[in-house]
Write a structure and sequence with these properties.
354 residues, 9-stranded mixed sheet, 23% helix, globular, binds 2-OXO-4-methylpentanoic acid
């Protein structure tokens, strides 16, 4: 792509906005009027355009459909009380998209294409950004193979898109999780660190089995021994044990969450103790029994800071202390929200103002 990205715009004839119910917005079910699309052909990005949101013509022979050659990102934009549009750390999502793309043999999306596509699209659909407490505009950039070839080889054609969804919380209630010690999300050398569609598709069945038992989500463990905590699939996980914040150290089987990084930076800036290290299931279960695990929570773009109130392991359920007694997770949530909604200074330079 050249220095300045040229984006053709085709507007909807009639907006769906007046017919959209913004009360009690669900996560990821409502989409704005337009979407951004760009094509990668002959080793070049071209044809950047914004068109009415709608179904896409995709070849039935696309490797995205057959082999899951598809990656994505999740970003949030919020409206400040002054009406400014504030996007949280989009440059970091752009970097991570290209890290995932390298693993999945996909071309890098240039930063200007990613940022300008997102800017123009949000400008056009700015009236869709919800202003209610806890609501945001969820931004979903994604890249997939557009080849028409069902042999296995690196693809040559790709489509990059951005869609926007005014959304409420991903988890509306405190979360109940089960520590998974049979199924595996990711292994060393695999694609766990990439935001690849297949990582999520493969997790649906084990998560469904847990949901049938009354849990919302799983905590995945390492694929080799099922001895160490990894992440939760929709979010990274953190614990407060004896006053200290601990979270699994990153590896190639854990997604490097941007919310995870933000939380660690914040808590370190408060001069509180933080450890990124291997955390065994045994350590957590022993701590739950002894009452030394004071808080447990998921952290992610969609999930924000999701308190975990119950952890299941091998047919036993362990309750965390009541959330009202927690100190750290609520403080982190408040601080992050204040920064995201422009209610507080942004000392770490996370906000990109449109
Ligand atoms: C996000 O938090 O943005 C994610 O991509 C998680 C997704 C499973 C909703």
């Amino acid at each position: 792509m050249t220095e300045t990205v040229k984006i053709d715009i085709e507007r909807v004839l009639e907006s769906r906005l007046p017919k959209t119910n913004f009360d009690q917005l669900p996560f990821g079910k409502v989409y704005t009027d337009h979407m951004f699309v760009a094509d990668y052909r002959d080793r070049e990005w071209k044809n950047a355009r914004i068109i009415p949101y709608g179904y896409l013509p995709v070849s039935p022979a696309s490797p995205a459909i057959h082999y899951g050659q598809s990656i994505f990102e999740g970003i949030k934009a919020h409206k400040s009380p002054k009406g400014e549009i504030l996007i949280f750390r989009p440059h970091d999502n752009h970097k991570r998209l290209n890290i995932s793309g390298e693993r999945m043999c996909m071309p890098p999306v240039p930063e200007d294409l990613f940022m300008e596509g997102m800017r123009e699209l949000i400008e056009l659909d700015r009236a869709w950004i919800p202003s209610g407490e806890g609501a945001s505009l969820y931004i979903r950039p994604f890249l997939f193979s557009a080849d028409e070839y069902i042999g296995i080889r690196p693809s040559e054609a790709f489509t990059f898109m951005i869609i926007l969804s005014p959304s409420g919380a991903y988890y509306s209630d405190p979360v109940k999780v089960k520590i998974e010690t049979h199924f595996t999300r990711a292994v060393a050398g695999g694609t766990g660190y990439a935001k690849a569609g297949g990582n999520y598709g493969g997790a649906i069945y084990p998560a469904k089995l847990a949901q049938d038992q009354g849990y919302h989500q799983l905590i995945w463990t390492d694929g080799r021994e099922h001895k160490y905590i990894e992440e939760s699939g929709t979010m990274n996980v953190m614990f407060v044990v004896n006053g200290k914040l601990i979270t699994p150290a990153l590896s190639d089987s854990i997604l490097a969450g941007i919310t995870r990084d933000s939380v660690l930076q914040l808590v370190r800036s408060w001069n509180l103790e933080v450890e990124e290290r291997k955390i065994s299931v045994e350590e957590i279960v022993t701590g739950l029994k002894a009452g030394t695990v004071q808080e447990a929570f998921g952290v992610g773009t969609a999930a924000t800071i999701a308190p975990i109130v119950l952890i299941g392991h091998e047919d036993k359920n362990y309750h965390l202390p009541p959330v009202e007694e927690w100190g750290l997770a609520p403080r982190i949530l408040q601080e992050l929200n204040d920064i995201k909604y422009g209610l507080k200074a942004d000392p770490l330079g996370w906000i990109y103002k449109l």
